[in-house]
Amino acid sequence: MFYREAGDFKTSYVDDGQTFPIKFDRYRYYFVLFVAFAMVPLLINDYWVNAIFLPFLIYSIAAIGLNILVGYCGQVSLGTGGFMAVGAYACYKFMTGLDIWIGGVQYALPPINIFFSVILAGLVTAVVGVLFGLPSLRIKGFYLAVATLAAQFFLVWLFNKWAWAYNYSASGQINAPEREIFGVAITGPNTEAWASYLFCLVIAAITAVIARNLTRGASGRKWMAIRDMDIAAEIIGVNPLKAKLSAFAVSSFYIGIAGALFFAVYLGAVEVGEAFGIQKSFIVLFMVIIGGLGSIFGSFAGAAFLVLLPVLLKLMLADSTDTITGFSTVMSWIFLLAFAAAVVMLVINVIRTRSLIAGSGVGWIFASIAAFMAYALTIGGMGWPTDIVAHLQLVIVGALIIIFLVAEPHGIAQLWRVAKEKLRLWPFPH
Amino acid sequence: MNDMSTEGYTTEDGRKIGGTLMEMKNITLSFGGVKAITDISFDIKEGEIRAIIGPNGAGKSSMLNVISGFYIPQEGEVWYKGEKRAQMKPYEVARLGIARTFQNIALFDGMSVLDNVMTGRLNHMTTGLFAQGLWKGKAEREEVENRERAEKIIDFLEIQAIRKTPVARLPYGLKKRVELARALAAEPSLLLLDEPMAGMNVEEKEDMSRFILDVNDEFGTTIALIEHDMGVVMDLSDRVVVMDYGKKIGDGTPDEVRNNQDVIDAYLGVSHD
Question: Under an 8 A CB cutoff, do B115 and A229 touch?
């Protein structure tokens, strides 16, 4: 009923090839953009920006980048953290004024505007990415993963040892100085929440649109051809060298931008081993896999899942009345009753079908989880000790990743597609 | 090149066949100590349907792989459009206008039928990465132009209904047809078909035969095909090369080949008493 093509005739190939061919989808997309650009900046405070929006947007850019490489071109990479570090340090050098020594004489550029510093950092990372992508011409799969892992460790080591990269600071850290665009501080301690949010949002939106354009056109087809069957791709005229290296370049460009934003806008101060260690590589890879390989939407969904879930769990389980307020006790009772009802239905279903998931079992499991979450949020958290919650967070996130991959190997993007298919007819049977 | 080899001829059904498009001269290919192809020469003339047949392991697919640049022969020369072809990579061969299909379907499973056919157009798309990122303008124009060409092929092969279907969901016969569409989308001057009818039922074979003849007729595409179904080969092809154990044992019109004693021996066996 909602996602229907009926009556929405396409009379040109341009119309047929657009990103959201279904009207309902298109309006939903405009609505999301409207909310993100016009409403969210008015409502958010420091907590929301730092806990959710900035990491979500920045990880989304990194996930799109990695998805281009892994999801579209089929080349595994574990070097994401290292490439983010390249972006961060390049951005730092550009925004503090790049200095080069040639023949004992120092040449220094003036500091570059933060926006262009971020873009230039992306370009530098693209070059480094191509360099470390060269082995992909000879090796595939696990072997390539190990080769990119070497990039990860090498780059972190490099930025630890190479004093020029951190401007010879005593701590070995890099700190983002205050930088402005149109007189509004984007980096540094005096940045307003909405300013850093809008800056990241603009970059995320532009990069997402560009990624979509690349993947739906000739480049995307070259990458996917290499991914699906490299021999056939070569026979129809795809130069594997160019295709793979362009994927590495574009992917690293995105990851470099994400690294630059992560350092300059989000953290403000970075110690390379801590901020861009191997965990970063893995978490971005998880985002891509959980979100859905070969899907731009999936990159956003995966980033949202891994950024939001820990925050949500913390709000639910720990005492968090200071961040969530305004829900009445009546609501919490309603959700508690709903939770009880869902559990009863689940038990009845188990007795009837002698299986946990047969019949509408999965539905009742989800319903009881949702009701419990709503209940926990409305009473302002369960008030459990924070250290237990911290451990539980890890356990639950880990378990959910496993369950997710078993239940839907193609990620959230696939779930979304299936939901859309179902919504075409719903609520009618056919 | 001598005059004899550039000469065209007229087929039984009255089609005019042009001069030599491709000529293989004394090709020898071996893997380690195993000789896959021994000193084989033959030519493919413009506009004809040329079949390569032979028992299993005769070296037919290896021959096709030599033509498409996938294997590099130890000895011999490949002449194409009157020039000796330098040693080149398969994607460079594709740019010369040689397209092929595979014995085992080699479609891109993660993509839709339309996207698969559009990959055949990649050689005709030259927009740079930057313009593609912007999309509006050059990239979009090029996409639409090539989409029109691809749609013509889709119409021609009657696969409009499955345009947006992921190829992984298609039945075998349709996959073969999509693969042919992908090769045709490149608008090749020479089309290589590696067992286009393998594993098909009679009806599907009839369809495929019709498409092959139509392609040759409408686009004037020169076709070289490997096939095991003798009935199909004898009906479709203008000239046939017969291979056995890496050697050429016959070459000529279907009738000549059918009555060649070596060919009969190779297919039916010969008694050694």
Answer: no
Q: Which of B19, B39, B26 is nearest to B82 (CA)?
A: B19
- Measured between CA atoms, the residue of chain A closest to residue B192 is A235
Residue B229 inside a domain? The answer is: yes
Q: Does B94 touch chain A (CB under 8 A)?
A: yes
Task: For A317-368, write each residue's pLDDT tens digit.
Answer: 776 555 455 555 677 788 888 888 988 988 888 888 877 777 777 788 888 8
Residue contact B110–A228, C-beta within 8 A: yes
Gyration radius from chain A CA atoms: 24
Neighbours of A299 (CB within 10 A): 33
Q: pLDDT at position A21, please?
A: 79
pLDDT in tens, B223-240: 999 998 888 899 999 999
Question: In this structure, is residue B104 part of a structural domain?
Answer: no
* Interface membership of B95 toward A (CB under 8 Å): yes
Cβ atoms of residues B79 and B1 within 8 Å: yes
Residues B252 and B265 reside in one and the same domain = yes
Q: What is the mean pLDDT of residues A108-130?
A: 93
CA A217 to chain B, closest CA, distance in angstroms equals 7
Are residues B8 and B89 located together in one domain of the fold? yes
Q: pTM for this one?
A: 0.88
B81 and B194 in a single domain? The answer is: yes
Same domain assignment for residues B240 and B209: yes
DSSP conformation letters of A134-164: GGGGT--HHHHHHHHHHHHHHHHHHHHH-GG
Residues of chain B where predicted confidence (pLDDT) is lower than 50: 1-4
Q: Are residues B130 and B244 in the same domain?
A: no
Torsion of CA B44, B50, B55, B57, to 10 degrees: 50
B119 phi/psi in degrees, rounded to 5: -60, -30
pLDDT reported for residue A412: 86
Check whether residue B77 and residue B157 sit in a common domain. no
- Asked if A219's CB is within 8 angstroms of B132's CB, the reply is yes
Domain around B233:
1-97+188-273
Q: Give the chain B residue nearest A72 (alpha carbons).
A: B110
Q: For residues B193 and B151, state if they share a domain.
A: no
Give the per-residue pLDDT at A321.
56
Same domain, B34 and B3: yes
Residue B265, domain member (yes or no): yes
| Stretch A304-325: mean pLDDT | 75
Give the highest mean pLDDT range of A176-185, A400-409, B143-152. Answer: B143-152
Using a CB-CB cut-off of 8 Å, the residues of chain A touching B129 are: 214, 219, 246, 250
B108 phi and psi angles, rounded to 5 deg:
-90, 100
Q: Are A4 and A154 in contact (CB under 8 A)?
A: no
Give the model's pLDDT for residue B3: 41
Mutate to test the interface with A, among B102, B122, B155 (most CBs of A within 10 A): B122
- Tell me whether residue B103 is in a domain: no
What are the pLDDT digits (tens) for A242-270? 999 999 999 999 999 999 999 999 999 99
Total number of domains in chain B: 2
Residue ranges and CATH numbers for the domains of chain A are 44-301 (1.10.3470), 317-425 (no CATH)
Domain of B29, CATH number, reads 3.40.50.300
Contact B107 A232 (CB under 8 A): yes
